[in-house]
Design a protein that fits this description.
The complex is a heterodimer of chains A (249) and B (104). Chain A has seven helices and two strands, in the order H-H-H-H-E-E-H-H-H. With 249 residues, chain A is mainly alpha-helical. The longest helix of chain B has 32 residues. Classes of the chains: A mainly alpha (249), B mainly alpha (104).
């Protein structure tokens, strides 16, 4: 325990293994400070669960109502891109964990390296997502009438189209609901990725300045929690959006 | 004052979790390509939940977290399950009589 717990020396913490850290003055110890940060972050993540949870609920209800339309609409998504993106995101979670671990062992260069890798992988994910969105625009699978291109869902396989229409005569309209959910859910997820990339850029800057070390790396760890949470959302989005009609192809 | 409440996780642990997550992703795709009938969604969700637990436990450090944090995380997911299940209790039981179902 520090003998001068009320002194906040964060402002001139030069990092490194030698500097002795003191918590901000409202905390008794570095551990208490870290626990408070972690609990606060988890409370935020609970609101995020509810945020995405509403969309998952909407998805569940509509899929329950229009299972055939959801399956045929899902089968027009590119499973290969979706699977690659899942791998890219999991990989970025690994590099994020290693960035934090590097701070824990006072390896500043390693921390920077892994933060950059995490950002590159996050960027790759968004790039692939952009390719997929572009394909959907070309195919007129964007709901509504965006850029004067009305939604138009035509199944290439006439036999499949007839089978869908037999069960659900309005399957094209119901496919539009699927794509609305697809764009909202992946769009909200991508928004989280973009925000995450911004936070990572700030962390990279502070890491370079030597603000973090084995005694203090709360911002790195809290951002890690956020980044991994966004990964978990995608782990559920991938099978729910991409794989509904996979066995028919 | 102890600097760490827990030892630094070995790189190998993170790599094993990473590999397990990749295997899980492959498994999801393979399971979806096979026609499992009604079981396909439960199987996909079972794999996804396993993957999510791996991320929560290892990457998000819940295994070393204070119980308060574990409780907070669990409460969040519990409420989500409550929301999903109460919605299904409603829509799952009334669709046939109230909402027009295509083809019936």
């Amino acid at each position: 325990m520090s003998s001068t717990p009320l002194v906040d020396r964060h402002e001139h913490g030069h990092g490194g293994a030698h500097g002795h850290r003191h918590p901000a003055h409202q905390f008794d110890s570095m551990e208490q400070q870290k626990e408070s940060s972690t609990l606060g972050m988890w409370l935020f993540l609970v609101t995020e669960i509810m945020f995405f949870g509403g969309l998952f609920t909407a998805y569940m209800v509509y899929r329950h109502m229009y299972p055939v339309a959801f399956a045929v609409a899902s089968s027009t998504l590119n499973v290969t891109w979706g699977a690659i993106n899942t791998g890219v995101l999991i990989c970025s979670s690994l590099t994020m964990a290693l960035a934090i671990r590097s701070a824990q062992i006072n390896w500043r260069k390693g921390s920077m390296l892994f933060l950059v890798l995490t950002m590159l992988l996050g960027g790759a994910f968004l790039g692939i997502k952009a390719i997929e969105y572009h394909d959907k625009f070309v195919e007129n699978h964007v709901p509504g009438n965006v850029l004067n291109q009305p939604f138009d869902f035509v199944l290439e396989n006439a036999h499949e189209a007839a089978a869908a229409a037999r069960v659900d005569p309005l399957y094209q309209r119901h496919a539009e609901i699927f794509f609305s959910l697809y764009f909202i859910m992946t769009g909200l997820h991508a928004t989280h990725m973009i925000i995450g990339l911004g936070v990572l850029a700030v962390l990279l800057f502070y890491t370079k300045r030597g603000k973090f070390d084995s005694e203090y790396y709360n911002p790195l760890e809290m951002t890690g929690l956020y980044w991994h949470f966004v990964d978990i959302v995608w782990i559920f989005l991938f099978p729910l959006l991409y794989l509904l009609g996979a066995h028919t192809h | 004052m102890t600097e760490h409440q827990h030892p630094v996780t070995p790189v190998s642990t993170y790599v094993y979790v990473f590999l397990a997550l990749l295997v899980g992703t492959g498994l999801t795709v393979v399971a979806a390509k096979v026609d499992l009938g009604w079981a396909s969604t439960p199987v996909a969700m079972l794999i996804a939940i396993t993957k999510a637990l791996l991320v929560l436990y290892f990457f998000m450090e819940l295994r070393h977290s204070a119980r308060m944090n574990v409780l907070t995380a669990a409460a969040g997911f519990f409420w989500l399950v409550l929301m999903l299940s109460t919605f299904m209790m409603d829509y799952g039981t009334r669709v046939a009589t109230v909402l027009p179902v295509a083809g019936k």
